[in-house]
Design brief:
The structure is a homotetramer. By secondary structure, chain A is α/β, with parallel strands linked by helices. Chain A has two domains: about 25-105, conserved putative lor/sdh protein from methanococcus maripaludis s2 domain (conserved putative lor/sdh protein from methanococcus maripaludis s2 fold); about 135-360, Rossmann fold (3-Layer(aba) Sandwich), CATH 3.40.50.10690. The first copy, chain A, has helices spanning about 115-120, 135-150, 165-175, 185-200, 220-230, 230-235, 245-250, 275-285, 300-305, 330-340, 350-360, and strands at about 25-30, 45-50, 55-60, 65-70, 75-80, 90, 100-105, 150-155, 180-185, 200, 205, 255-260, 290-295, 310-315, 320, 325-330, 345-350. In chain A, strand 10 and strand 11 form a beta hairpin. The longest helix of chain A has 17 residues, at about 135-150. Chain A starts with about 25 loop residues before the first strand and ends with a helix. The interface between A and C is large, with 45 and 45 residues.
Chain lengths: ~375, ~375, ~375, ~375
C-alpha cells in the first residue's frame, strides 16, 4: 500500500570525473536548421550541462535526438534541429561522462548496484509468455498516484474504439480523472465519432459486429457531418455527438492532439495537417507527462517515445521518473517501442481491448 | 437473459435429394490400417448414413478425417485409419449430398437463409482489431450453461501457468466447476508444479519475475521430485504439491490427459509417451465435450480440433452444437486453428493471461 | 509465353439494368470541404456515371472514398472532400447498379463466371504457408511488361535499406528501369543516405552489423549534413552522396515523394511537412501507376492503397488493371493491406530483404 | 578466402580456479528414472568433469538439461533422466566454475575479450529489420565447408513443401549433398508425398494454387496409399513415388526421423509413435550434427535445440562449433528458438520459401 516514487540520486559533482570537468562549449549554428559540427545529441535520460560559472544544469523537458541550445535566459534548452536559427549557440561534444562538460546520468533512479547475475536477468526480453501480473499492479499503483500527483498522457490507435467494452472503459477512465491528455490521429477520432453517430466502426456494430447496410459510408458521413458542423467541439455543443471518447474529452476539457497522416480521409477539422506543428503540439503534452500509456499504434507511440524524457523536473527541482507503458500484440512492435534502455518503460503484450477493460475494472 | 442453445434442424429426409438416396455402400479393408479405395472421410459436421433398412443414422462422436466403420452392433462408428483391421467394413463414396447414401448437414444450427449481403459480412476475418465484447459475453453465457448442462473441456499451453494471476484464475475456475477435463502436455504440468514447489516458472518468479539463483534447475528438480514421488497424484496426496492447476484438478478428481511430445524433459510419470494412445485418451474427453476452450497452444489445439465434432448427440437423440473457443496472440495461429468452417468456432486474439483473468472475474 | 494483360469487358450499357438508368444527379456543396447529403463515394473499381446526354462516362484516376465532382470541362472527376469548394456539383446516390446513374463494375477483368466451388477457393486467405511461387512468377512477368509499357511505382519502408544486399538490389532495379517512382518517408531516405555516408543504418554496419563507436550519431549527422547541403539533389551533385537508393533515383531523374510524419527527425529538406500536400503529390504518382510494389510499411501502403485505383484508362480509352503487390511479414498487416476486394492485389508474406534479392536476380 | 572454423581454446587447467579443483562427486540414483539430489544438469556448452585421477574429461555428445552418468567404461556420458537406472552413478554439484569438479566453458570459440561497447552491441536482438546479408553469407560458407567436412542436419516443418519452388530447391540441395539427415514429422512427409502423387498440398496445387475437386481427400488418400504400400521406401522402390523430398532422401539413402505427434492423421508407417523413442532417434542424428538448419517448426526446432550441443569433439579430440540456423517468420518464435546463449545460433526472420530458394541458388 502506498505507492512511493523511487528516489532520484543526483550525480556526485564533487567527485571524479565531474569535479574537474570543463564547462560545455557552445558553437554557433552555421545556417537555419543546421547544427554546428560535433553537436551533442540528447537522450531520454537526465543530462547535466556544466555552465561557465561551474554549476551543473539539469536539462528540463528533454527529449531524444535533439540539441542543447543556449536560451535567451542563458539556460540550456532542448530543441529540435528544425527550430534552430543561424547563430543560435548549440552545445558540442559527444562525450557523456563530463569530459566535455556534459554528463549523462542513466542510473539516477536505480537502487544501489546489483550483482552480475541479476543484471543478466534484467536483460531478459519481453514476450507474450512473460508474466504481466506485476506490470499491471505497478501500472495501477502509478495511475492512482499520478491521477492527482502527475499528468497521465495517453497515446492511442483506432483499435481502442473498435470494441464496445474497451471504448466504454476508456470513457470511464476519462470521467474518473485518469486521462490528462490524448495523442492520436484522425482515425481514432473518426471511428469514435462514427460510434457515437451510428454505433458502428467502419460500418460494423461495435458490440454485435453486424455489418450495416451501406455501412461503409458511415465513416465518410461522419467526417462530412463533423466538417459541416465545424469540428468536434461544436458537434458536442450542438448535441450531435453524445457519447464516446472524443465526447468525454471535450466535456471534461481535456486537451488532445490529432496529428494528420497520409492515410487520412476527411480529415476532421481539429486534425493538424503539418506534422512538425503536430510534433510541437504533442511535445507540449508529452513534455509534461509523468506517465504515458501507449495503446496499439506504432506511429504515434514511436513519435511520442522520441519526445518524452524518462524524467520530470518539478518546479522545486525534484526529479521523478516518467513511466512509459506500451500495449501491443506483437513482440516486434513492443520490442521496438519499449527499447528506451530505461527502467521505466514497460511493454505489455496483449490485446488493447482486454487491457482497457482490466484497467477500468481495477481503478 | 437466459442463454438458449440454438435449435437443430434435421435434414428433410422425405424431400429431394434424400428421399431417393441409396443405402451407403460398405467395403472391406484390404489390410490392417488400410481403408478400401474410395473411402468416405468424415468432417466436423453432422453426417447421416443411409442404412440398408432405409433409415438415416446420424454419426455420433464424429471427428474430422476419419472413416465410417460398421460396428459390431451394426451401427456406423467413426474411427481412425490406424484402428482399422483387415476385413472391417468401411463406407465408401465421396458424395456428400446423399447420392451415395451419405449426407453432410452443415447448416443444421443456422437460422433461416440470409441474404447475400450478410453472407458476405460473415466471411469477414478475425484480427486483433476485431471487436470481442460479444464473443466474451457469448462465452460467459455458454460457460454458465454448460457448467451444469454440458462438458467444458480445456486445452492449454504452458503460457497459462507462467503468470501468477492467470494461474490463480484457472484454479478458481476449476474450483467453481467450469472445468470438466484438461488436455495438455508435459510442459504445462511441469511449469505448474514448479510454481507449486518454488513459486517460479523456469526459475523466474511467477509474480515478481525475479530470476532466482540456480533457478534454471527448478524445472528439472520439479521433474525429479515428481518422478521420485511416483507422479502428480501421489505428490498431492503426500502434501508435496499444495497449489496450482494440477493440484486443483487432482483434488477435484477432474480427468486430464498429458500427451507426450519430443520437446519433453523428464517426463512426468502421468505423461503418455505414445502419441496415438494419447490421441485415444484425448478423444475420450474431446468426444464428449460440449464446449472446448483452447488456450495458447497450436499443437494441442489443432489435435483437439481434429478430434472434436461440431455437434453432440444426447442419449435422447437431441443434437446440440459444440462450441470451440480459441485464444491466441497471432492471426496466423488463430486463423489456422479456427478454420473449421463452423459457426460455433470463435477465435479471440489476445494474451491468454488477460483472457483467464477476464473469465474468472465474469463467472 | 509472353505476358498478356487481361482483357477488360465493358458493361452492357444496352441491356438491363443500365439501358433504362437515369442520369446521375449532382448537387451543390453547402460549404467548403463539405459534400452534399447522400454523396456517392468512389471505390477502387471502375465506375461509370451516366451523364445528361445519356452516355456513360468511366471515371479516370479514381480512388477510394472520394466524391465525384463535375469538372469545369463538364466531365466527372474524382476528388477528395477537403478539395471541395462551396457550390461544387457532386454526384449523389448510393446505388451502385445504375439505379441512380452510377454503375460499379467489379468484374471487368474476370474471365467468364465460374462455378461456386472455385469461388469458394478464391476466398482462401493468404498466410506464411501459402505457396508463393506463382505470385513471384506473375510479378516478374508484370514487371517486365510494365517496365516499358506502364508505370511501376514503389512504396517502401525503411527496412528495405537496412540490409546491404536488399539495398543494392533496389539500386540495380532502379538502374535497370523497373522503378518509375517512389513513395516513402523521411526514415527511408535518411537511413539510405546514412548508408551512403557511413555504410551503416542507425549506426550498425549494413553488411557486417557491427555497431560503430558513436554510431547513434550517424543518422543525426546525416540529417545535419543534408540540411546544410540544401537537400538530396544538391548533395548528390556535390558528390557528397555517392551511392544508394536516393542517389540512384536522383541520378536517373526518377520522381519520388517523401511524406512527413510525426516520427521524423530532421527532416530532410525534400520532406513534405503537410500530409495533405503529401497526399496530393503521392496521388500524382499513384494515379498513373500500372503496378504498385509496396514494401514493409503499413502507413505508406495503406495511404497509397487508398489513392490507387484498380484500373487505368489509357488515352485511347483502353482499360487495363493496376497490379498491387504487398510484401510484409505479418498476416495482420498483409490482410489489412491487401483487402481491396480486387483480383489484382497480391500479398507476399516474407522478409522484404529476400524479396528484393529475389526480384533483382529474376529481372 | 575460404571459410575457416574458429579455433577452440581449451580452458587453462593449470591456472586458478581449475588447478586446485576437486574431482567431481558421483552419487547413486535412488530409483529408476530418478537422479540423486543435487544432480548437475548439462548445457549446450562444453563442460569438463574432473575425474578421480585428476584429468579433465570433456563431455561428448552433450545436450541440454540432462545429467552426467558414469558409463561402464568409466567415462562420463550425458544422458536423459528417463534412461537412468537405480544405482547409476550421476554427477552432483551445481557449481560451474570447477568448485565441484565441473567446469562450464562458455567462451571457447570467442576471440579475445572485447570492450564493453561491443559487448553491448552483441546483445542487440534480432528482428525482421535486422540485416541478414552476412548471416546468409556465413551460412553459405558453412554449408560448403560442412558438405564434405561435417554433418548438416535439417529440421523442417510442413511449410517447406507447400510451395513448388521451395520443395524443388530442397530436393536439389539433397542431391547436391547438403543434407545429411532430416528431422521432421508426419505432416511434412505426408504433404510432400501428396505433392508427388497429386501435385497438391492439402488439395491445393503447389504451384498454381488451384483447389482441386475433392482435393481435401488427397492427403488421406496419400496416407492410405502409403500405408497399403508398406511405407515410403517401398512406395519409392515400386515407383509409386517419383519425386519430392522423401523420394530424394530415400534414393540417396539419407537418414531421417519422422516423429509422431498428437496432430497426426494416418500416420505413415515410418512415423515413430513413442515420442521418447523418437527423441532417441533424433538425438542419434542431432548428436553428430556440425550444422543444423531448422525451418518453420517450433516443435521440432525446440526439441532438436535441446538435444544438440554447441560443439562437436572429433575422434582426434579436436573441438569445433555446431552452427544452428533458425528460419522463422515471427520474432516470438525466433527469439524463443535461438535463445541458446551461444555465438553459433543464428535466427533469420523470413519466409522459409524464399530462404530455400536463396540457399539453392547460392550453393
Amino acid at each position: 500500500m502506498g505507492f512511493v516514487l523511487p528516489e532520484y540520486r543526483h550525480p556526485d559533482f564533487n567527485g571524479a570525473p565531474l569535479a574537474g570537468a570543463p564547462a560545455a562549449v557552445f558553437c554557433a549554428c552555421p545556417a537555419d536548421g543546421v547544427a554546428p559540427a560535433g553537436f551533442h545529441a540528447t537522450s531520454v535520460f537526465p543530462e547535466y550541462v556544466r555552465m561557465q560559472d561551474g554549476h551543473w544544469e539539469l536539462l528540463r523537458r528533454s527529449r531524444m535526438d535533439c540539441v542543447i541550445r543556449l536560451g535567451t535566459d542563458g539556460r540550456p534548452e532542448v530543441t529540435e534541429f528544425r527550430r534552430l536559427r543561424k547563430g543560435d549557440m548549440v552545445a558540442v561534444g559527444r562525450g557523456e561522462n563530463g569530459e566535455q562538460g556534459i554528463y549523462l546520468h542513466t542510473g539516477g533512479f536505480e537502487p544501489a548496484r546489483q550483482c552480475g547475475g541479476e543484471a543478466f536477468a534484467f536483460r531478459t526480453g519481453t514476450s507474450r509468455e512473460t508474466s504481466f501480473s506485476i506490470a499491471y499492479d505497478t501500472l495501477y499503483d502509478i495511475m492512482r498516484h499520478d491521477r492527482s500527483h502527475g499528468r497521465i498522457i495517453w497515446v492511442a490507435g483506432p483499435a481502442v474504439v473498435f470494441d464496445s467494452d474497451a471504448r466504454a472503459a476508456f470513457c470511464r477512465l476519462i470521467d474518473k480523472g485518469y486521462v490528462h491528455g490524448l495523442l492520436a490521429g484522425n482515425a481514432l477520432a473518426t471511428h469514435d465519432l462514427e460510434g457515437a453517430l451510428y454505433n458502428t466502426a467502419l460500418g460494423q456494430g461495435i458490440y454485435d459486429k453486424r455489418q450495416m447496410p451501406l455501412g461503409h459510408y458511415h465513416h465518410l458521413d461522419t467526417l462530412n457531418t463533423l466538417r459541416e458542423a465545424g469540428g468536434i467541439e461544436r458537434a458536442v455543443q450542438q448535441g450531435q455527438i453524445r457519447g464516446g471518447v472524443m465526447h468525454a474529452l471535450t466535456r471534461q476539457g481535456i486537451p488532445y492532439v490529432l496529428a494528420g497522416s497520409i492515410r487520412d480521409d476527411g480529415p476532421l477539422p481539429e486534425v493538424e495537417p503539418d506534422v512538425y506543428s503536430a510534433q510541437d503540439a504533442m511535445r507540449n503534452l508529452a513534455g509534461e507527462a509523468t506517465t504515458v500509456v501507449a495503446l496499439a499504434t506504432q506511429l504515434h507511440t514511436i513519435a511520442t517515445g522520441n519526445m518524452t524524457p524518462s524524467y520530470q523536473v518539478a518546479q522545486d527541482g525534484g526529479v521523478r521518473p516518467v513511466y512509459f507503458f506500451i500495449v501491443d500484440m506483437s513482440e516486434f512492435a513492443a520490442g521496438k517501442l519499449a527499447d528506451r534502455g530505461s527502467l521505466t518503460a514497460h511493454a505489455i503484450l496483449t490485446n488493447v481491448q482486454d487491457f482497457m477493460v482490466n484497467l477500468d475494472r481495477a481503478l
